[in-house]
Amino acid sequence: MAGGRSVLAHARLVRSSATAVLRFLLGEGENEWRRATAESLLTFKENQSVKMTTSWSDRLQNAADLPANIDGYALKKYRREAYHRVFVNRSLAMEKIKCFGFDMDYTLAVYKSPEYESLGFDLTVERLVSIGYPQEMLSFVYDPTFPTRGLVFDSLYGNLLKVDAYGNILVCAHGFNFMRGPEIREQYPNKFIQRDDTDRFHILNTLFNLPETYLLACLIDFFTNCDRYVSCETGFKEGDLFMSFRSMFQDVRDAVDWVHYKGSLKEKTVENLYKYVVKDGKLPLLLSRMNEVGKVFLVTNSDYKYTDKIMTYLFDFPHGPKPGSSHRLWQSYFDLILVDARKPLFFGEGTVLRQVDTVTGKLKIGTYTGPLQHGIVYSGGSSDTICDLLGAKGKDILYIGDHIFGDILKSKKRQGWRTFLVIPELAQELHVWTDKSCLFEELQSLDIFLAELYKHLDSSSNERPDISSIQRRIKKVTHDMDMCYGMMGSLFRSGSRQTLFASQVMRYADLYAASFINLLYYPFSYLFRAAHVLMPHESTVDHTHVDINETESPMATRNRTSVDFKDSDKRHQLTRSLVTLTINKTASNHS
Protein backbone atom coordinates (compact mmCIF):
# COMPACT_ATOMS: atom_id res chain seq x y z
CA MET A 1 0.00 0.00 0.00
CA ALA A 2 3.06 2.26 0.14
CA GLY A 3 2.64 2.78 -3.59
CA GLY A 4 -0.88 4.10 -2.98
CA ARG A 5 0.38 6.60 -0.44
CA SER A 6 3.03 7.67 -2.95
CA VAL A 7 0.40 8.32 -5.60
CA LEU A 8 -1.76 10.38 -3.23
CA ALA A 9 1.24 12.34 -2.05
CA HIS A 10 2.21 13.06 -5.63
CA ALA A 11 -1.32 14.23 -6.42
CA ARG A 12 -1.11 16.68 -3.53
CA LEU A 13 2.28 17.81 -4.83
CA VAL A 14 0.91 18.51 -8.30
CA ARG A 15 -2.09 20.42 -6.95
CA SER A 16 0.05 22.52 -4.60
CA SER A 17 2.48 23.29 -7.44
CA ALA A 18 -0.33 24.56 -9.66
CA THR A 19 -1.74 26.65 -6.82
CA ALA A 20 1.70 28.12 -6.19
CA VAL A 21 1.93 29.18 -9.83
CA LEU A 22 -1.49 30.82 -9.60
CA ARG A 23 -0.56 32.71 -6.44
CA PHE A 24 2.68 33.83 -8.00
CA LEU A 25 0.82 35.16 -11.02
CA LEU A 26 -1.46 37.16 -8.71
CA GLY A 27 1.46 38.56 -6.72
CA GLU A 28 2.42 42.18 -6.30
CA GLY A 29 2.94 44.30 -9.37
CA GLU A 30 0.85 45.40 -12.30
CA ASN A 31 2.42 43.30 -15.03
CA GLU A 32 -0.25 42.89 -17.73
CA TRP A 33 0.94 39.42 -18.82
CA ARG A 34 0.78 38.03 -15.29
CA ARG A 35 -2.69 39.46 -14.68
CA ALA A 36 -4.06 38.17 -17.97
CA THR A 37 -2.74 34.67 -17.36
CA ALA A 38 -4.08 34.60 -13.80
CA GLU A 39 -7.51 35.74 -14.95
CA SER A 40 -7.50 32.96 -17.53
CA LEU A 41 -6.86 30.40 -14.81
CA LEU A 42 -9.58 31.83 -12.58
CA THR A 43 -12.06 31.90 -15.44
CA PHE A 44 -11.51 28.19 -15.94
CA LYS A 45 -12.22 27.44 -12.29
CA GLU A 46 -15.39 29.57 -12.28
CA ASN A 47 -16.73 27.85 -15.39
CA GLN A 48 -15.66 24.34 -14.42
CA SER A 49 -19.22 22.94 -14.42
CA VAL A 50 -19.69 24.12 -18.00
CA LYS A 51 -16.34 22.96 -19.30
CA MET A 52 -16.74 19.48 -17.89
CA THR A 53 -18.94 18.81 -20.91
CA THR A 54 -15.97 19.50 -23.17
CA SER A 55 -13.78 16.52 -24.03
CA TRP A 56 -10.65 16.18 -21.92
CA SER A 57 -8.37 16.08 -24.96
CA ASP A 58 -9.93 19.29 -26.33
CA ARG A 59 -9.43 21.08 -23.04
CA LEU A 60 -5.77 20.13 -23.03
CA GLN A 61 -5.27 22.00 -26.29
CA ASN A 62 -5.57 25.29 -24.42
CA ALA A 63 -2.23 25.73 -22.68
CA ALA A 64 -3.66 28.35 -20.32
CA ASP A 65 -6.06 25.74 -18.95
CA LEU A 66 -3.40 23.22 -18.01
CA PRO A 67 -2.29 24.43 -14.57
CA ALA A 68 -5.91 24.90 -13.48
CA ASN A 69 -6.92 21.51 -14.82
CA ILE A 70 -4.68 19.80 -12.32
CA ASP A 71 -5.56 22.07 -9.40
CA GLY A 72 -8.11 19.70 -7.92
CA TYR A 73 -10.34 19.49 -11.00
CA ALA A 74 -8.69 16.76 -13.04
CA LEU A 75 -10.67 13.73 -14.08
CA LYS A 76 -9.61 10.42 -12.59
CA LYS A 77 -6.71 9.02 -14.60
CA TYR A 78 -7.91 6.46 -17.10
CA ARG A 79 -6.50 2.99 -16.57
CA ARG A 80 -7.16 -0.16 -18.55
CA GLU A 81 -8.55 -3.28 -16.94
CA ALA A 82 -5.99 -4.66 -14.50
CA TYR A 83 -5.61 -7.93 -16.42
CA HIS A 84 -5.01 -6.05 -19.68
CA ARG A 85 -2.48 -3.61 -18.30
CA VAL A 86 1.23 -3.26 -18.88
CA PHE A 87 3.04 -1.97 -15.80
CA VAL A 88 5.90 0.51 -16.05
CA ASN A 89 9.17 0.78 -14.14
CA ARG A 90 10.89 3.12 -16.60
CA SER A 91 9.19 5.33 -19.15
CA LEU A 92 9.22 4.02 -22.69
CA ALA A 93 7.94 5.66 -25.89
CA MET A 94 6.64 2.89 -28.14
CA GLU A 95 7.05 5.03 -31.25
CA LYS A 96 10.84 4.90 -30.70
CA ILE A 97 10.91 1.09 -30.82
CA LYS A 98 12.05 -0.22 -34.21
CA CYS A 99 12.39 -3.92 -33.38
CA PHE A 100 10.39 -6.31 -31.19
CA GLY A 101 12.27 -9.37 -29.96
CA PHE A 102 10.76 -12.49 -28.37
CA ASP A 103 11.84 -15.47 -26.33
CA MET A 104 9.77 -18.59 -26.99
CA ASP A 105 9.44 -20.74 -23.85
CA TYR A 106 7.01 -19.21 -21.33
CA THR A 107 6.73 -16.10 -23.53
CA LEU A 108 5.29 -16.90 -26.95
CA ALA A 109 4.66 -20.45 -25.78
CA VAL A 110 3.07 -20.33 -22.33
CA TYR A 111 3.05 -23.77 -20.72
CA LYS A 112 -0.07 -24.73 -18.80
CA SER A 113 0.22 -24.86 -15.03
CA PRO A 114 0.29 -27.18 -13.17
CA GLU A 115 0.19 -29.76 -16.00
CA TYR A 116 3.59 -28.86 -17.45
CA GLU A 117 5.29 -28.52 -14.05
CA SER A 118 3.86 -31.91 -13.03
CA LEU A 119 5.31 -33.49 -16.16
CA GLY A 120 8.76 -32.05 -15.48
CA PHE A 121 8.54 -33.06 -11.82
CA ASP A 122 7.59 -36.68 -12.59
CA LEU A 123 10.34 -37.08 -15.19
CA THR A 124 12.96 -35.64 -12.82
CA VAL A 125 11.88 -38.01 -10.03
CA GLU A 126 12.16 -40.95 -12.44
CA ARG A 127 15.65 -39.84 -13.39
CA LEU A 128 16.76 -39.60 -9.75
CA VAL A 129 15.40 -43.08 -9.00
CA SER A 130 17.24 -44.44 -12.04
CA ILE A 131 20.57 -43.19 -10.63
CA GLY A 132 20.02 -44.73 -7.18
CA TYR A 133 17.59 -42.61 -5.16
CA PRO A 134 14.94 -44.54 -3.13
CA GLN A 135 12.01 -46.11 -5.00
CA GLU A 136 9.61 -44.52 -2.50
CA MET A 137 10.15 -41.22 -4.31
CA LEU A 138 7.98 -42.45 -7.18
CA SER A 139 4.97 -41.75 -4.96
CA PHE A 140 5.76 -38.02 -4.85
CA VAL A 141 3.02 -35.85 -6.40
CA TYR A 142 3.64 -32.26 -7.48
CA ASP A 143 1.81 -29.65 -5.38
CA PRO A 144 1.59 -26.25 -7.16
CA THR A 145 0.55 -24.44 -3.96
CA PHE A 146 3.98 -24.80 -2.34
CA PRO A 147 6.71 -23.38 -4.61
CA THR A 148 7.10 -19.85 -5.85
CA ARG A 149 9.81 -18.31 -7.97
CA GLY A 150 12.68 -16.31 -6.55
CA LEU A 151 13.46 -18.59 -3.60
CA VAL A 152 17.06 -19.22 -2.58
CA PHE A 153 18.34 -22.71 -1.76
CA ASP A 154 21.02 -22.86 0.92
CA SER A 155 23.13 -25.88 -0.07
CA LEU A 156 24.88 -25.90 3.32
CA TYR A 157 21.83 -26.30 5.57
CA GLY A 158 19.29 -27.46 2.98
CA ASN A 159 16.85 -24.60 3.56
CA LEU A 160 14.60 -22.81 1.09
CA LEU A 161 14.79 -19.09 1.81
CA LYS A 162 12.64 -16.19 0.77
CA VAL A 163 14.76 -13.05 1.05
CA ASP A 164 14.53 -9.36 0.27
CA ALA A 165 16.86 -7.39 -2.01
CA TYR A 166 19.47 -7.07 0.74
CA GLY A 167 19.59 -10.72 1.82
CA ASN A 168 17.34 -10.38 4.88
CA ILE A 169 15.40 -13.60 5.45
CA LEU A 170 11.62 -13.27 5.17
CA VAL A 171 10.67 -16.97 5.20
CA CYS A 172 12.73 -20.10 5.91
CA ALA A 173 11.61 -23.69 5.27
CA HIS A 174 13.47 -26.96 5.85
CA GLY A 175 11.56 -29.42 3.73
CA PHE A 176 7.95 -28.62 4.60
CA ASN A 177 8.82 -27.39 8.09
CA PHE A 178 8.56 -23.61 8.29
CA MET A 179 11.11 -22.40 10.83
CA ARG A 180 10.36 -19.74 13.45
CA GLY A 181 12.55 -16.82 14.42
CA PRO A 182 14.67 -18.54 17.14
CA GLU A 183 15.26 -21.58 14.87
CA ILE A 184 16.29 -19.34 11.98
CA ARG A 185 18.75 -17.41 14.15
CA GLU A 186 20.52 -20.62 15.17
CA GLN A 187 21.73 -21.01 11.59
CA TYR A 188 21.55 -17.37 10.48
CA PRO A 189 22.34 -15.22 13.56
CA ASN A 190 21.32 -11.97 11.86
CA LYS A 191 18.52 -13.50 9.74
CA PHE A 192 20.68 -12.45 6.81
CA ILE A 193 22.61 -14.16 4.00
CA GLN A 194 25.45 -13.12 1.72
CA ARG A 195 23.78 -13.43 -1.67
CA ASP A 196 27.07 -13.08 -3.53
CA ASP A 197 28.16 -16.46 -2.11
CA THR A 198 26.88 -18.24 -5.21
CA ASP A 199 28.62 -21.53 -4.35
CA ARG A 200 26.34 -21.85 -1.34
CA PHE A 201 23.19 -19.90 -2.22
CA HIS A 202 21.35 -20.74 -5.45
CA ILE A 203 18.53 -18.52 -6.73
CA LEU A 204 15.61 -20.44 -8.27
CA ASN A 205 14.28 -17.65 -10.46
CA THR A 206 12.68 -19.26 -13.50
CA LEU A 207 9.37 -20.96 -14.15
CA PHE A 208 11.35 -24.07 -15.09
CA ASN A 209 12.69 -24.03 -11.48
CA LEU A 210 9.25 -24.59 -9.91
CA PRO A 211 9.32 -28.44 -10.09
CA GLU A 212 12.94 -28.36 -8.91
CA THR A 213 12.02 -26.18 -5.92
CA TYR A 214 9.23 -28.50 -4.83
CA LEU A 215 11.37 -31.61 -5.38
CA LEU A 216 14.11 -30.26 -3.09
CA ALA A 217 11.53 -29.75 -0.34
CA CYS A 218 10.14 -33.27 -0.93
CA LEU A 219 13.58 -34.87 -0.71
CA ILE A 220 14.54 -33.11 2.51
CA ASP A 221 11.17 -33.94 4.06
CA PHE A 222 11.49 -37.58 2.98
CA PHE A 223 15.02 -38.13 4.34
CA THR A 224 14.21 -36.23 7.56
CA ASN A 225 11.26 -38.51 8.34
CA CYS A 226 12.70 -41.80 7.04
CA ASP A 227 13.91 -44.15 9.80
CA ARG A 228 16.81 -45.40 7.68
CA TYR A 229 18.50 -42.00 7.69
CA VAL A 230 19.95 -39.83 10.44
CA SER A 231 19.63 -36.07 10.08
CA CYS A 232 22.82 -34.02 10.39
CA GLU A 233 23.32 -30.27 10.27
CA THR A 234 24.51 -30.36 6.66
CA GLY A 235 22.93 -33.55 5.32
CA PHE A 236 21.88 -37.14 6.08
CA LYS A 237 23.68 -40.33 7.08
CA GLU A 238 22.82 -43.96 6.37
CA GLY A 239 25.37 -46.17 8.07
CA ASP A 240 28.77 -45.13 6.79
CA LEU A 241 27.28 -43.17 3.89
CA PHE A 242 26.83 -39.41 4.11
CA MET A 243 24.81 -37.34 1.66
CA SER A 244 25.22 -33.58 1.97
CA PHE A 245 22.58 -31.06 0.98
CA ARG A 246 25.09 -29.75 -1.54
CA SER A 247 25.40 -33.11 -3.30
CA MET A 248 21.62 -33.57 -3.19
CA PHE A 249 21.11 -30.18 -4.83
CA GLN A 250 23.65 -31.03 -7.53
CA ASP A 251 21.95 -34.37 -8.21
CA VAL A 252 18.60 -32.63 -8.63
CA ARG A 253 20.10 -29.94 -10.87
CA ASP A 254 21.81 -32.57 -13.05
CA ALA A 255 18.58 -34.57 -13.27
CA VAL A 256 16.61 -31.49 -14.35
CA ASP A 257 19.19 -30.69 -17.04
CA TRP A 258 19.11 -34.29 -18.25
CA VAL A 259 15.31 -34.25 -18.51
CA HIS A 260 15.39 -31.03 -20.54
CA TYR A 261 18.27 -31.82 -22.89
CA LYS A 262 18.46 -35.62 -23.12
CA GLY A 263 15.23 -36.89 -21.62
CA SER A 264 11.69 -37.09 -22.94
CA LEU A 265 10.27 -33.76 -21.70
CA LYS A 266 10.15 -32.15 -25.14
CA GLU A 267 8.98 -35.36 -26.79
CA LYS A 268 6.08 -35.76 -24.36
CA THR A 269 5.23 -32.07 -24.71
CA VAL A 270 4.88 -32.17 -28.51
CA GLU A 271 2.92 -35.44 -28.28
CA ASN A 272 0.17 -33.60 -26.42
CA LEU A 273 0.48 -29.89 -27.20
CA TYR A 274 -3.15 -29.20 -26.32
CA LYS A 275 -2.54 -30.48 -22.78
CA TYR A 276 0.66 -28.57 -22.12
CA VAL A 277 0.71 -25.39 -24.24
CA VAL A 278 -1.63 -22.38 -24.15
CA LYS A 279 -2.89 -21.34 -27.60
CA ASP A 280 -4.01 -17.71 -27.94
CA GLY A 281 -5.91 -16.58 -31.03
CA LYS A 282 -4.74 -12.99 -30.49
CA LEU A 283 -1.07 -13.88 -31.07
CA PRO A 284 -1.09 -13.68 -34.91
CA LEU A 285 -2.98 -10.38 -34.76
CA LEU A 286 -0.50 -8.73 -32.40
CA LEU A 287 2.56 -9.89 -34.34
CA SER A 288 1.07 -8.76 -37.65
CA ARG A 289 0.46 -5.30 -36.17
CA MET A 290 4.04 -5.24 -34.90
CA ASN A 291 5.18 -6.10 -38.44
CA GLU A 292 3.43 -2.96 -39.66
CA VAL A 293 5.43 -0.62 -37.41
CA GLY A 294 8.78 -2.40 -37.04
CA LYS A 295 10.76 -5.61 -37.34
CA VAL A 296 10.02 -8.72 -35.30
CA PHE A 297 12.55 -11.38 -34.32
CA LEU A 298 12.66 -14.59 -32.29
CA VAL A 299 15.60 -15.69 -30.12
CA THR A 300 15.23 -19.03 -28.33
CA ASN A 301 17.55 -21.53 -26.68
CA SER A 302 15.48 -24.40 -28.10
CA ASP A 303 16.56 -26.32 -31.20
CA TYR A 304 14.84 -25.80 -34.55
CA LYS A 305 12.80 -29.03 -34.62
CA TYR A 306 11.19 -28.36 -31.24
CA THR A 307 10.73 -24.66 -32.05
CA ASP A 308 9.04 -25.48 -35.36
CA LYS A 309 6.55 -27.86 -33.73
CA ILE A 310 5.67 -25.45 -30.93
CA MET A 311 5.35 -22.41 -33.21
CA THR A 312 3.36 -24.31 -35.83
CA TYR A 313 0.86 -25.22 -33.11
CA LEU A 314 0.66 -21.63 -31.80
CA PHE A 315 -0.20 -20.30 -35.28
CA ASP A 316 -2.39 -23.22 -36.34
CA PHE A 317 -5.59 -21.34 -37.12
CA PRO A 318 -7.81 -21.69 -40.20
CA HIS A 319 -7.31 -17.99 -40.86
CA GLY A 320 -4.53 -15.43 -40.68
CA PRO A 321 -4.21 -12.52 -38.25
CA LYS A 322 -7.90 -11.74 -38.65
CA PRO A 323 -10.92 -13.94 -39.37
CA GLY A 324 -11.39 -14.01 -43.13
CA SER A 325 -7.70 -13.48 -43.95
CA SER A 326 -5.66 -16.34 -45.38
CA HIS A 327 -3.59 -18.60 -43.15
CA ARG A 328 0.12 -17.76 -42.83
CA LEU A 329 3.06 -19.92 -41.80
CA TRP A 330 4.53 -18.93 -38.45
CA GLN A 331 7.86 -18.01 -40.06
CA SER A 332 6.17 -15.23 -42.04
CA TYR A 333 5.53 -13.23 -38.86
CA PHE A 334 9.26 -12.84 -38.12
CA ASP A 335 11.97 -10.90 -39.90
CA LEU A 336 14.65 -12.94 -38.13
CA ILE A 337 14.51 -16.34 -36.42
CA LEU A 338 17.39 -17.55 -34.27
CA VAL A 339 17.50 -20.89 -32.41
CA ASP A 340 20.15 -22.54 -30.18
CA ALA A 341 20.92 -19.07 -28.81
CA ARG A 342 22.52 -20.29 -25.56
CA LYS A 343 21.33 -17.31 -23.53
CA PRO A 344 22.75 -15.68 -21.42
CA LEU A 345 26.01 -16.36 -23.35
CA PHE A 346 24.18 -14.94 -26.36
CA PHE A 347 24.24 -11.46 -24.78
CA GLY A 348 28.03 -11.59 -24.37
CA GLU A 349 30.54 -13.20 -26.69
CA GLY A 350 27.91 -15.49 -28.18
CA THR A 351 28.65 -18.43 -30.47
CA VAL A 352 29.27 -19.00 -34.18
CA LEU A 353 26.35 -17.91 -36.38
CA ARG A 354 25.16 -20.84 -38.49
CA GLN A 355 22.31 -21.40 -40.92
CA VAL A 356 19.68 -24.10 -40.31
CA ASP A 357 18.46 -26.45 -43.01
CA THR A 358 14.73 -26.18 -42.32
CA VAL A 359 14.02 -29.47 -44.14
CA THR A 360 16.35 -31.69 -42.11
CA GLY A 361 16.73 -29.47 -39.03
CA LYS A 362 20.51 -29.84 -39.25
CA LEU A 363 23.04 -27.02 -39.34
CA LYS A 364 24.72 -26.07 -42.60
CA ILE A 365 28.50 -26.12 -42.71
CA GLY A 366 30.35 -22.85 -42.16
CA THR A 367 29.68 -19.48 -40.57
CA TYR A 368 26.89 -17.35 -42.01
CA THR A 369 28.29 -14.05 -43.29
CA GLY A 370 25.52 -12.80 -45.57
CA PRO A 371 22.83 -10.15 -45.07
CA LEU A 372 19.50 -10.66 -43.36
CA GLN A 373 17.18 -12.78 -45.50
CA HIS A 374 13.52 -13.30 -44.73
CA GLY A 375 12.70 -16.96 -44.16
CA ILE A 376 16.20 -18.07 -43.21
CA VAL A 377 16.57 -19.65 -39.77
CA TYR A 378 19.82 -19.01 -37.92
CA SER A 379 21.54 -20.87 -35.10
CA GLY A 380 23.83 -19.41 -32.43
CA GLY A 381 25.21 -15.92 -32.92
CA SER A 382 25.07 -13.09 -30.42
CA SER A 383 23.10 -9.98 -29.58
CA ASP A 384 25.64 -7.94 -31.56
CA THR A 385 24.83 -10.13 -34.56
CA ILE A 386 21.13 -9.37 -34.12
CA CYS A 387 21.78 -5.63 -34.09
CA ASP A 388 23.96 -5.84 -37.21
CA LEU A 389 21.47 -7.93 -39.18
CA LEU A 390 18.50 -5.77 -38.19
CA GLY A 391 20.38 -2.47 -38.52
CA ALA A 392 19.36 -1.47 -35.01
CA LYS A 393 21.09 -0.27 -31.87
CA GLY A 394 20.34 -1.05 -28.23
CA LYS A 395 17.46 1.26 -27.36
CA ASP A 396 15.74 0.62 -30.69
CA ILE A 397 14.91 -2.89 -29.48
CA LEU A 398 12.20 -4.01 -27.06
CA TYR A 399 13.02 -7.54 -25.95
CA ILE A 400 10.23 -9.61 -24.41
CA GLY A 401 11.01 -12.62 -22.22
CA ASP A 402 10.21 -14.45 -18.99
CA HIS A 403 13.72 -15.14 -17.64
CA ILE A 404 14.80 -12.39 -15.24
CA PHE A 405 18.49 -13.33 -15.70
CA GLY A 406 18.81 -14.96 -19.11
CA ASP A 407 16.44 -12.59 -20.95
CA ILE A 408 16.04 -9.36 -19.03
CA LEU A 409 19.10 -8.67 -16.87
CA LYS A 410 21.71 -9.55 -19.48
CA SER A 411 19.98 -7.83 -22.39
CA LYS A 412 19.60 -4.70 -20.26
CA LYS A 413 23.10 -4.59 -18.74
CA ARG A 414 25.16 -5.70 -21.74
CA GLN A 415 23.24 -4.27 -24.67
CA GLY A 416 20.97 -1.54 -23.33
CA TRP A 417 17.92 -3.15 -24.94
CA ARG A 418 14.56 -2.03 -23.60
CA THR A 419 12.98 -4.90 -21.70
CA PHE A 420 9.52 -6.38 -21.15
CA LEU A 421 9.25 -9.11 -18.53
CA VAL A 422 6.43 -11.64 -18.80
CA ILE A 423 5.24 -12.71 -15.33
CA PRO A 424 2.37 -15.23 -15.68
CA GLU A 425 1.87 -15.30 -11.90
CA LEU A 426 0.87 -11.64 -12.02
CA ALA A 427 -2.75 -12.54 -12.78
CA GLN A 428 -3.05 -14.40 -9.46
CA GLU A 429 -1.13 -11.66 -7.64
CA LEU A 430 -3.57 -9.04 -8.93
CA HIS A 431 -6.54 -11.17 -7.93
CA VAL A 432 -5.33 -11.45 -4.33
CA TRP A 433 -4.30 -7.79 -4.23
CA THR A 434 -7.84 -6.70 -5.10
CA ASP A 435 -9.84 -9.50 -3.46
CA LYS A 436 -8.02 -9.32 -0.11
CA SER A 437 -7.72 -5.55 0.11
CA CYS A 438 -9.12 -5.67 3.66
CA LEU A 439 -5.91 -7.31 4.87
CA PHE A 440 -3.72 -4.63 3.31
CA GLU A 441 -5.95 -1.94 4.80
CA GLU A 442 -5.70 -3.56 8.23
CA LEU A 443 -1.90 -3.42 8.02
CA GLN A 444 -2.18 0.30 7.33
CA SER A 445 -4.48 0.72 10.32
CA LEU A 446 -2.04 -1.14 12.55
CA ASP A 447 0.70 1.26 11.45
CA ILE A 448 -1.54 4.15 12.52
CA PHE A 449 -2.22 2.57 15.92
CA LEU A 450 1.51 2.03 16.40
CA ALA A 451 2.23 5.67 15.62
CA GLU A 452 -0.46 6.80 18.09
CA LEU A 453 1.24 4.94 20.95
CA TYR A 454 4.41 6.95 20.43
CA LYS A 455 2.64 10.20 19.56
CA HIS A 456 3.47 12.21 22.71
CA LEU A 457 6.82 10.60 23.55
CA ASP A 458 10.32 11.89 22.90
CA SER A 459 13.85 11.11 24.10
CA SER A 460 13.02 12.35 27.63
CA SER A 461 10.23 9.78 28.08
CA ASN A 462 10.78 6.81 30.36
CA GLU A 463 7.48 5.25 29.37
CA ARG A 464 7.64 2.13 27.18
CA PRO A 465 4.36 1.54 25.35
CA ASP A 466 3.21 -2.06 25.17
CA ILE A 467 3.22 -2.78 21.45
CA SER A 468 3.29 -6.57 21.75
CA SER A 469 -0.36 -7.02 20.79
CA ILE A 470 0.06 -4.85 17.69
CA GLN A 471 3.21 -6.74 16.70
CA ARG A 472 1.41 -10.07 17.06
CA ARG A 473 -1.47 -8.80 14.97
CA ILE A 474 0.89 -7.52 12.26
CA LYS A 475 2.51 -10.97 12.09
CA LYS A 476 -0.91 -12.65 11.94
CA VAL A 477 -2.20 -10.39 9.15
CA THR A 478 1.06 -10.75 7.21
CA HIS A 479 0.80 -14.55 7.49
CA ASP A 480 -2.84 -14.50 6.37
CA MET A 481 -1.86 -12.37 3.38
CA ASP A 482 0.95 -14.73 2.42
CA MET A 483 -1.30 -17.78 2.63
CA CYS A 484 -3.66 -16.20 0.09
CA TYR A 485 -0.89 -16.59 -2.49
CA GLY A 486 0.31 -20.08 -1.55
CA MET A 487 2.49 -21.82 1.03
CA MET A 488 5.51 -19.63 0.23
CA GLY A 489 3.47 -16.47 -0.08
CA SER A 490 3.55 -13.78 -2.73
CA LEU A 491 6.14 -13.68 -5.49
CA PHE A 492 6.67 -9.98 -4.79
CA ARG A 493 6.35 -9.41 -1.05
CA SER A 494 6.04 -10.69 2.48
CA GLY A 495 3.75 -8.29 4.28
CA SER A 496 5.06 -4.81 3.53
CA ARG A 497 8.53 -6.01 2.52
CA GLN A 498 9.43 -6.64 -1.11
CA THR A 499 11.19 -9.82 -2.16
CA LEU A 500 14.45 -10.22 -4.04
CA PHE A 501 12.46 -11.11 -7.15
CA ALA A 502 10.40 -7.91 -6.87
CA SER A 503 13.55 -5.79 -6.60
CA GLN A 504 15.01 -7.47 -9.70
CA VAL A 505 11.81 -6.82 -11.65
CA MET A 506 11.89 -3.15 -10.70
CA ARG A 507 15.59 -2.82 -11.49
CA TYR A 508 15.86 -4.60 -14.82
CA ALA A 509 12.41 -4.72 -16.45
CA ASP A 510 11.29 -1.50 -18.11
CA LEU A 511 7.81 -2.98 -18.58
CA TYR A 512 6.11 -6.06 -17.17
CA ALA A 513 2.76 -7.79 -17.47
CA ALA A 514 1.09 -11.17 -17.04
CA SER A 515 1.30 -11.58 -20.82
CA PHE A 516 2.87 -9.62 -23.66
CA ILE A 517 -0.51 -10.00 -25.43
CA ASN A 518 -1.54 -7.02 -23.29
CA LEU A 519 0.37 -4.83 -25.78
CA LEU A 520 -2.61 -5.42 -28.06
CA TYR A 521 -4.61 -2.98 -25.91
CA TYR A 522 -2.20 -0.06 -26.47
CA PRO A 523 -1.42 1.97 -29.60
CA PHE A 524 2.13 1.75 -30.94
CA SER A 525 2.42 5.49 -30.36
CA TYR A 526 1.81 5.01 -26.63
CA LEU A 527 4.02 6.60 -24.01
CA PHE A 528 4.44 4.18 -21.13
CA ARG A 529 5.13 6.63 -18.34
CA ALA A 530 6.60 5.43 -15.05
CA ALA A 531 4.87 6.44 -11.84
CA HIS A 532 6.69 8.93 -9.65
CA VAL A 533 8.76 7.04 -7.11
CA LEU A 534 8.80 8.98 -3.87
CA MET A 535 11.25 8.59 -1.02
CA PRO A 536 9.87 8.14 2.52
CA HIS A 537 10.38 11.83 3.34
CA GLU A 538 8.23 12.66 0.31
CA SER A 539 5.54 9.99 0.56
CA THR A 540 4.89 10.39 4.32
CA VAL A 541 5.03 14.18 4.71
CA ASP A 542 1.93 16.20 3.80
CA HIS A 543 2.30 19.17 1.46
CA THR A 544 1.31 21.83 3.96
CA HIS A 545 3.31 24.99 4.45
CA VAL A 546 5.63 24.88 7.45
CA ASP A 547 7.61 27.88 8.69
CA ILE A 548 11.07 26.54 9.39
CA ASN A 549 12.57 27.52 12.72
CA GLU A 550 16.30 27.84 12.21
CA THR A 551 16.87 27.22 15.91
CA GLU A 552 15.05 23.89 15.70
CA SER A 553 16.64 22.98 12.37
CA PRO A 554 20.05 24.61 11.77
CA MET A 555 20.30 22.96 8.34
CA ALA A 556 17.34 25.09 7.22
CA THR A 557 19.87 27.81 6.41
CA ARG A 558 21.14 25.70 3.51
CA ASN A 559 18.69 27.33 1.10
CA ARG A 560 19.55 27.25 -2.59
CA THR A 561 16.58 29.35 -3.70
CA SER A 562 17.22 32.95 -4.68
CA VAL A 563 14.30 35.40 -4.56
CA ASP A 564 16.10 38.71 -4.91
CA PHE A 565 15.82 39.85 -8.53
CA LYS A 566 16.57 43.48 -9.24
CA ASP A 567 16.07 43.02 -12.94
CA SER A 568 12.31 42.77 -13.59
CA ASP A 569 12.90 41.28 -17.05
CA LYS A 570 14.72 38.36 -15.48
CA ARG A 571 11.85 37.92 -13.04
CA HIS A 572 9.32 37.88 -15.86
CA GLN A 573 11.47 35.36 -17.73
CA LEU A 574 11.52 33.11 -14.68
CA THR A 575 7.74 33.41 -14.34
CA ARG A 576 7.23 32.30 -17.93
CA SER A 577 9.67 29.42 -17.51
CA LEU A 578 7.92 28.27 -14.34
CA VAL A 579 4.51 28.21 -16.00
CA THR A 580 5.92 26.47 -19.08
CA LEU A 581 7.56 23.85 -16.89
CA THR A 582 4.27 23.18 -15.08
CA ILE A 583 2.38 22.96 -18.38
CA ASN A 584 4.89 20.53 -19.88
CA LYS A 585 4.86 18.35 -16.77
CA THR A 586 1.06 18.27 -16.75
CA ALA A 587 0.86 17.38 -20.43
CA SER A 588 3.26 14.47 -20.05
CA ASN A 589 1.41 13.27 -16.94
CA HIS A 590 -1.80 12.94 -18.98
CA SER A 591 -0.22 11.47 -22.10
UniProtKB/TrEMBL annotation:
Instruction: Show the Gene3D superfamilies listed in the entry.
Output: HAD superfamily/HAD-like
Which UniProt key words apply to this protein?
Allosteric enzyme, ATP-binding, Cytoplasm, Hydrolase, Magnesium, Metal-binding, Nucleotide metabolism, Nucleotide-binding, Transferase
Disordered: where is this region?
A: 549-568
Where in the cell is the protein located? Answer: Cytoplasm, Cytosol
One short Pfam name that applies is 5_nucleotid
Q: Which GO terms describe its cellular component?
A: cytosol
Cofactor-binding details, from the entry: Binds 1 Mg(2+) ion per subunit.
Quick one: where is this thing mainly located?
cytoplasm
Residue ranges annotated as compositionally biased, kind Polar residues, are: 551-560
Please give the cofactor(s) recorded in the UniProt entry for this protein.
Mg(2+)
EC number(s) stated in the UniProt entry for this protein: 2.7.1.77, 3.1.3.5, 3.1.3.99
| Annotated residues for binding of Mg(2+) | D103, D402
Gene Ontology molecular functions: 5'-nucleotidase activity; ATP binding; metal ion binding; nucleoside phosphotransferase activity
Give the residues annotated as active site: D103, D105
**Family named by the database record:** Belongs to the 5'(3')-deoxyribonucleotidase family.
Partners and quaternary state? Homotetramer.
NCBIfam families assigned: HAD-IG-Ncltidse
* Protein function: Broad specificity cytosolic 5'-nucleotidase that catalyzes the dephosphorylation of 6-hydroxypurine nucleoside 5'-monophosphates. In addition, possesses a phosphotransferase activity by which it can transfer a phosphate from a donor nucleoside monophosphate to an acceptor nucleoside, preferably inosine, deoxyinosine and guanosine. Has the highest activities for IMP and GMP followed by dIMP, dGMP and XMP. Could also catalyze the transfer of phosphates from pyrimidine monophosphates but with lower efficiency.
What is the official name of this protein in its record?
Cytosolic purine 5'-nucleotidase
- The organism encoding this protein is Crotalus adamanteus (Eastern diamondback rattlesnake)
Q: What does UniProt list as this organism's lineage?
A: Eukaryota, Metazoa, Chordata, Craniata, Vertebrata
